[in-house]
Structure formats: C-alpha cells, structure tokens
Amino acid sequence: MMPVVPVRVVRQGVLLVNLGTPDAPRAPEVRRYLSEFLSDPRVLDIPALARQLLLRLVILPFRPRRSAEAYSKVWTDRGSPLLVHGLDLAEAVRQRLGADVPVELGMRYGRPSLPDAIERLQAAGVDELVVLPLYPQYASSSTGSTLERVYELVAQAWNVPQVRVVGAFYDHPDFLKAMAHQIRTTLDAVPGAHLLMSYHGLPERQCRKSDATGAHCLATDACCAAIVEANRHCYRAQCTETSRRLAAMLGLAPEAWSVAFQSRLGRTPWIRPYTDEVLPRLAREGTRDVVVACPAFTADCLETLEEIGMRASEDFEAAGGKSLRLVPGLNAEPHWADAVVRLLLDQGLRTEVGAAAC
Questions:
Q1: What three-state secondary structure class fits 189?
Q2: Is the pTM here over 0.90, yes or no?
Q3: Staple partner for 313: which of 19, 73, 279, 324, CB 3.0–4.6 Å?
Q4: Does the bond joining 112 to the residue before it have cis omega, within 30 degrees of 0?
C-alpha cells in the first residue's frame, strides 16, 4: 500500500494596490504625501540631487497649498474619493471571493500603506500573494514603482511568500466591457456628444525609455498605430490601444472620438496631445457637447473629479462649448468588481468562485 502523502495547501491572499492620497485636504498632509510621491526616482526620473532641489525649492514650498484647495473640492465625508472607492472595491471583491481569501488594499504612497497591507496578509497565514496594481496601462512610474516596492517588502520576510502579479490589463475584455458600460451610459444621456478619452500624461523620455529598440517610440506620428514588439511596454501605445478597442465596442465613427493626455508637470515635453489644449480647440471648432472618459483611472480621484469635472469643464465652456460631462470612474461598480475577480482568476487565484466559473 502506497503511503499517503499529505497535500500541501497554499493559502492565497489578494493585494489590490492604487497610487495613494493625502490623509486630509490640508497643506501639511498634502506636503507629506507629495514628498513621498515625488521622491520616488521612478516618478521624477532625474538625478537624485536635481530631484531633491526641484522638490525642496520649487514644488513643496508652493504646490501643497494649491493641491489642498483642489482636494477640498472633492473630499467626502468618508475621506478621499480614491481611498473610499478603493476600500469599497476591496470589500466587493472580498464578498465575491469568500472568507477563505483575504483581500487587502494598499497604497503605494500614503495610507493604508503597502507595508501594513502586506503585514495583515502575512498575519492571516498567506503563502502566496496575488497582486493587482489598479493601473490598466503599464508605466514605470506607477506599475513599475508599485511592483518594485512590493518585491522589496515581501523579501524582508523570513518565509518569503510567492507572488503572482496581474500585469497591464489595458486590453483585457472584462476591463474593456466595464469601461465601455460606463461610457455608454453617459453618452446615451448626451446624444451627439464627442467622446474624449483623457489619460494621465507622462514625460516623453519615459516612453522612450520603455522602447528596448530605442528607435520606435515617438519616432513617428504612427508609432502607436499598433502594439508591436518595440512598444509593447509603452504607456502611450497601450492607452491608444485601449481607446481603439473602446471606440470599436461603442461603435463610434473615427471623427466621434479622440485621445489626449492630462496632468502634466514642469516644462519638459510630455506625451501629446494635451487635454487642456484639445478641449478648447474642440469648442472653437464647433463641438457643443463633449463626454470625457478617463480610462487610465479605475477610481475617481483628484485628476478626474477636479481636473476634468471642474476645471476642464469651465475651460471648455469658456472657449464656447455648451457642456462637458465626465464619465464616472469604475470605482466599486458591480461590473468592475466582477472584472477584478476575473483578472485575479486569470492570474492563478484558486477559489470556489474560480472552480464554479471553469
């Protein structure tokens, strides 16, 4: 009789990660958050001395007060929108996966911190982390920085857990379906509106650094016309592919939609076209109504609610447009929570939910 070999049970846990947010819409808390965020060499990818001089002499003395005023316009009774939606999403995913799979939310900067989230998962006896950075398109300054920090933290444990990572999901059908649902609901309320898909911007140099060939990204106007080997890690190319697929799912004619990039900082060239230039141009050209979706953000935050929903709306109307309607973020919508579960299952999460779905 063959001896019975016990089956080793690997307990998995889920770590959802977003960028982060200040603890309060006040200058000291915003300064602390910006200091951590902009000290990251993947975010400000310039020499260390130049980064610290820029941060200490130019950004931190002035920007926290302005940013705090902007945060105060979108702050809720429960706190920052990004945090509120993140916690709600974690709870929705937790309910779908069941009590056997711990789910935690961690922020790359600010709280709840990544160290605290990982510590809670380890205290729950997790042997394997399934990590989902909540950024659809890859950028070294977001996904890259997040994963670098996760690997650094898990490596500190004596019993280092295994790590599975959900990579860029800019073209995943379930993400696209959830995003298209949000856009269609808003477009249906504004017949004939032009759809602008606005993504967070990046310095051009960061896109060029993602190109291993050194000869493709931003070399021509058609560099993002398709995903190829040279641009498969390029943020701008992935944003463009997301837009093409969404437009196709929505059945939009080429002239009915466009792409732009927002939130640029400093004087160095950022990827174009710029949202704050495209919207006034559309108004001057006779576009009356515009719907703006932000498919780089899975949760509403300062960049969607204040930058687009308030400031960009005012600029569009000042340039002659009639109305700008912001597409709500995916936040913790049921179709998005379902999509998150599918992303996790596709990356190897094993649950009763997964068994039922197979």
A1: helix
A2: yes
A3: 324
A4: yes
